[in-house]
Structure formats: structure tokens, C-alpha cells
Hints:
10 helices; elongated; 340 residues; nine-stranded mixed sheet
Amino acid sequence: xxxxxxxxxxxxxxxAEMGRSSTAPNPMVGALIVHQDKIIGEGYHHHAGGPxxxxxxxxxxxDKALLKESTLYxxxxxxxxxxxxxxxxNLIIEMEIPRVVVATRDFNSEVNGKGIARLKKAxxxxxxxxxxSEAQELNRKFFTFHKKQRPYITxxxxxxxxGIMDANRSNGEKGVQWISEAESQVFAHKLRAEHQAILVGxxxxxxxxxxxxxxxxxxxxxxxxxxxxxRSLDQHLKVFRDSSYLRFxxxxxxxxxxxxxxxxxxxxxxxxxxxxxxxxxxxxxxGSFTLRAFIEADLWDEAFIIESKQVIEDGLEAPKIxxxxxxxRLKNDLLKHYRR
Length: 340
């Protein structure tokens, strides 16, 4: 593996990261064109349905004649099939780019080596595996979806320093109880923007009446998934404010209802429905019962716990994760991060 290949692939991964909150269900991809050790073009995939990174990079090259003497670096295997856009391999071959360096293969069954094979068949030199693990980490949600045939599942909750996630509401008070600080809310909404769907249980929807949007961070609102088996929730709750939700229940009344089978476990049915609808990532925000169900079922990939400095004497105990994690700070709050 050449040092310059690593250097340029690092740039590709940096470019790919720019599409973190906008490319789903497509992966994040960066690409650049190098001629005589000089970058002459670069780009990244901005949004689903838009030009792929390779196309953006090639189009950014002012002197197209130089492409015949250049190397294309790309963080994910170029596609060879028609989707919303034509195959990237067609353009690479048409432009007679002689060398392509790829970080990782695309494990989507429509690609998975076919793009690389097509380039090699056209006589193009293809180098694979440059910063492969870093590239797969960047698109771990995308790869989990295609390898495990289920969405990537992230758990998130806030708790007090003594492990309480919701104060006792003996007076019947409703609405979100803010435990963490404003900076942590921005982080939480960034997480929402990085997931295609957000899931809560019936009690959280009823008692907190959350919006489940990204108002504190610039990004698309996730699809709202509501577990409501008996379909008992008031339709005037914020989670039902528009049609961007799915309600999981035993009886269907409208198009947003997904029928659950009462004689089967709920979570596998919800996850299978999400997979069939192409949802590559789900952020589970609560409540305590729902979060525990995912933990006990070993059905999660990543978890974020925001822990404030305040102490709550009486309330609902937060779930526990028996793993070693990383701890950082969000101003005065602690951020505990766990990976499976």
C-alpha cells in the first residue's frame, strides 16, 4: 500500500463525511482525481438521487484530457447498475481513467464486486482495500443494513447523575422533562438527523408528547416509529402531527398503521418492517421499558447516554449497559458512548 494512496484516501473519507446527514439511504462517498501527485478534481455524494461522488469529481476537472493520465480515488466501490443515476463505471470507462483506488467494496447485492470486475474487464488497474476498515466504519449503518438485513440500531437517553431518567410525576404532569443542557440537545438532534427513523414507546409518546424532530440541528427529520399495540394514543399528540410516522398496533385504521401479530415478539416484527421499508438506521429514544427491551434482546449496535450533574431523588431508573464505553463531555454533561 503506497503512502500517497493512503494520503489521498484520507481526503476521500473527509469529503464523504460532508454528506453524513443528507445521503441516506445511500452511503457517504468521497472521490478525487489525482494527476502527477496533484489533486485536479474532487467531490462527494450530496444527497440520494443526486450525482455520485465519482461523477462530481470527474465533472470538477477543468482539463478532461488529463483524466487519461490520472488516478481516481473513491471511498466506496463504483456502482455498475442503473438506479436513480447511471452506473459510475460507465463514466470512468468512457473517460479512460487508467487507475482506480477503492477503499472498500459495496456490499449491496446489486454491486458487491461487480463494479470492480467491470473496471478490470475494461483494462483499468484497480487497487482495493486502502483504508478499508475506516471506510466501513464511516458507513457502518449502510453496511449493517446490507450484511445483517436489518437497520443499524442506536439507543439514546438522558439521565441524572444518580441514574434517573424521569422524575416522579405524582401530580400527573406531562411534557418533556429536560435533564441535560442545551448543548446536549443539539447533539441529540444531530443524532436524529443522522438516522432515518426514530422510535419511542406508547408511554413516552403519551406522557412526554415529544416532537421527535431536528429543530436544534440542521438536518432532515427522521420518520417517527410509535409502538402503540392497543392503538390507544390520542391522535392529537405531536408524533401524529403529519403523515411522517408509522404506528405499530394490532389493528389497522389508516395507512400509517402497521399490524403486529399479538402471538409474536414485537421487536422482531418492528425491525423486519423497518428493513422491508428500506430504513437503514433507527434511533431508539425511549422510554425506559422500550430501551430495556432492545438491550435485553441484544438488538442494538451503539448507545449514547447523556448524564447531567443534577440529582433526581425519586423517579424512573434508567437502563444499564454492562459494557465498557468511552466518556467525553458536552459542556457540563457527560456523554457515555458504547459500541457492540
